[in-house]
Predict the structure of GH3 auxin-responsive promoter family protein.
Amino acid sequence: MAILGNIIKGIINLTGTLSTDVNHQEAQEKVLKNLLESAKETQFGKKYEFEKILNSKNIKKEFATKIPYYDYNSLNKKWWYKIHEGEENVTWKGNPSYFALSSGTTGKTSKRIPVTDDMISAIRSSGIKQVTALNNFDLPADFFEKDIMMLGSSTDLQEKDDHLEGEISGISASNIPFWFKGYYKPGEEIAKIEDWDERVQHIAENATNWDIGALSGIPAWIELMLQKVIEYHQLENIHEIWPNLKVYTSGGVAFGPYEKSFNALLGKPVIVIDTYLASEGYIATQTRPETDAMQLNTENGIYFEFVPMNPDYINEDGSIHQDAPSLTLAEVEKNKDYILIISTVSGAWRYLIGDTIEFTDIERAEIKITGRTKFFLNTVGSQLSVNKMDDAIKSLEEKFDTLIPEYTICAKRFEDGEFYHSWYLGTDLKKDEKEIADALDSSLKEANKNYKVARSKALKGVKVKVIATDKFYDWNDKNKKKGGQVKMERVMNEEKFAEWESFVNE
């Protein structure tokens, strides 16, 4: 009998029974007040008169009126640079213990995003919520005795001045609770290896020593790790070596485009649980099996606002106009795209995280990620979000019975002076590229009326190039590095796309 597993499961069940349903709107009001109270004596809090906001009749409205929108570049240029110059109490009390390095999916230069001790506590609380939610997934008691493979960036954080730096997955993994370390794989020694390929090689070599019950990480890198283990041990699928693997916790990107290729590596189905951990905080997690939507972490150090998704609100660099309206959780509607704005216990204020979301259940505060503001393709009025692109790729997989785990696109002006959507697909599909392009075009026309209108006017056509999926990973390796929080850019501007095409043709 799985005695320890039964004890752990019993605690989770009891926690779930004792906890009441969260009133997310009330939780958000409390979080905002706590944020303002905690930061009112900071430089930022004094500049924007947090004390007055706290004493106003409508705190949420006053907050939205007085404080401008920021993105990383503007907040770093006006405020966060002071932290690096040794100033304290800048946008949050004291100084951050960590900085999360993130080049995201667009820039080559790493962003340095403050991660305070308060944020570490908030991430840990949200992690406990995720574990507690496993009660809803009907897992056997012995699952809670299995190892958990967390494949993120290196936990060997770099010392700089009075803080440590690394990717958020490495920072989070280096702060796991002591009681969890016995379950955590690949373990501290291997997790500290900086070179991703070397780390995965060590994982493959040690795979037989572990009884993995759950995986956690970005889909593309989890797939490559599983492929390496399968190849190293000459297996048919990963369940031959990890027969008790039952759960995969995805994160960082939408899982949909990877679903088919991921399942091809399995010997039996696993439960997929979506999470949303960004460098700026733990945004949301899936809490029930009836949906793949994720519940916003409304109680743990993040206040959310939502700007209706409108191309007119977005500047060319992906930031948003200061006059764009923001809504609270009490004002949003289902099935509409919103630009996500957050204020956090790390001192990010009305911060454009760069993602767009839609609500599937407002009372439960459940959302789906629909795309990126910088990846919203509207060069010629096509208004394509990443989720529309993902859906089109999925239709290609079904039509041609193939796998397309990676792709990128650019609205490119060709020699004839006309704009075309130029797609690169990572797949081994052996089909005429014109046939693939026509199928892709038809799928997008059916799913998106704005795209259909654009195709009858300024958008001349669709071009497709089929390349090996490894090219996408090599590109990431060349520009940033493999593994961790690194994601492939789905949409490129023409300048970046020229670099991409040159790289592909080398």
